[in-house]
Design a protein that fits this description.
586 residues; alpha+beta; 4 domains
Amino acid sequence: MAGSVPRYPLRGRFGTGAQGSLDPAERLTQDHSHNLNDKGIKKMLKSLASAVTGLKNFTIQLDVLGNNLANVRTIGFKGSRVTFADTRSQSLTGISRGFDGGFGNQKQIGLGMTISSTELDFTQGSLEFTGTATDLAIEGNSFFVLSDGERNRFTRAGNFFFNGQGILVNPDGLAVQGWQADDNGVINVFSPLSEIFLDSNLSSPAAKTEQISLSGNLDATLTPRANVLTAGIALTLSADGSLATGTADLNDLTQTTTPLVSGDTIDIAGTLPDGTAVSATFTYSTDGTTIDDLITVINAAYGGTAVASIVDGKLTLTDVVGGDSNTTLALSSAADIALSAIDTTVTGFTGTVSTSVAIFDSLGDAHNLVITFTNTEVENQWTWAASFVGGEETIVDGGSGTIQFDNNGVVIAFDVDGAATGIVIEPGSGGSQFTVQLDVQGGVGFSGMTQFASDPTLIVRDQDGRPTGSLLRFAIDTTGVLTGIFSNEKNITLAQIALAEFPNPVGLFRSGGGIFDVTSSAGRPIIGIAGDQFSSSILSGSLETSNVDLVKQFTDMIVTQRAFQANARVVTTADQILEETLRLKR
């Protein structure tokens, strides 16, 4: 029948059995009457096979690109890339020898391409600030270590939180690994990894004050000044109007209009420097008759705290010790003697500088301690005294002393009065007796107390006691140290977050949920600390975003699409050539 196709035994690479219909191309290769070259048909079939490998593998690349783009907002996501390699080539001829003794090149035909690898890209992703303390981002090549209870797993996604049991976990409940601090805040990084735990009811115990550190300046110009009272009118002698002296009889004064007789009195009233009332009486004839006799009675009334005298005919009263003063003096008499008012002419001034601080006993009870420094007449020397404001506290010993500066304003000596080396305090609140040391020299340079001619700036730089405190918040530093911040201003180290690095992180197995698992290709994990064993750092309140570059992904997508289209054209073209070959017989 015209146009019928003859039947031939099936053979070669295209056959599936001993007998059956031949592929038209195979039929042509066996039709020797047409003298066709079998290799030509097979070469066209190789192009089909090569193009198919391109279609298949560029489809896989598109899958990878699609996954990258799908995770463009996934926390800690690391994109992947596809690399290709050609397959083994078929040699048409080997190396041939030329007529001149040289060699000709071999002839090979490639058989397509294959996927060499799909590799993870561990370049750093951008950091996004969240403000949540448990959101952690890594800058560097490290990984967070997680545990599912049986094995350690690894991630770059640091969106963690403390669960109901106080354990730091990721959204899938895997526990973040590290080391818990002991009761003294010490971390042993050589111990096995454990979960990070934070007890919201954690408290900081009270601690008694053992040292107070003082800092600042004592003004070198704050020298004490004695308070002076002076009569407004000078006493004069009636005989010649000259200024009276201490030996003058009271009846010889111009101010005495009617002579005093035995028994007449002059009342003495006033206050001591500390404000204590003074009351005394001078009796004429019995206590004497001269101005000096009157002064003797006044001095006895003030008990050595102030000294009376007559200067240029005026009665004066001067405090023995310089400083702020409440000294007053008034003289009055029923006799006919005119005594003028005695007023302050030099205001007493105390060269003192004070500061106060709340200190704590063994029960955490606070006591307000005041420390006062007073300049003395000894060059560059001050005295100091401690006291309490209110309360039942008492200073048992060591509550005063001296401090000595050199000519450069630097402390050279600090002494405590009594047998103690510090201030011995009985708190009176049930706590035990305790001793507080005063540190006035600081650590470096002028960090302690100084004496310069400038404004006083005395402060308590620090005191090491504290009351009981409750946990207010926590902070995580760049090395992964978790610190508790308590209401008593005490910061306590609670835990250390561990990191891991791998010899070949590209070899890790991506398990989903931002988790990577160890493979033999990745190597054994190296456990360490940020900023110590590793150059990585941890940023609290931030998250690492996906490292997928949209521009590059879209560019690769265009190239992949074109490559797929080109391979599809090869298939179409090869099919057209085969069809034309079939038509050669017609």
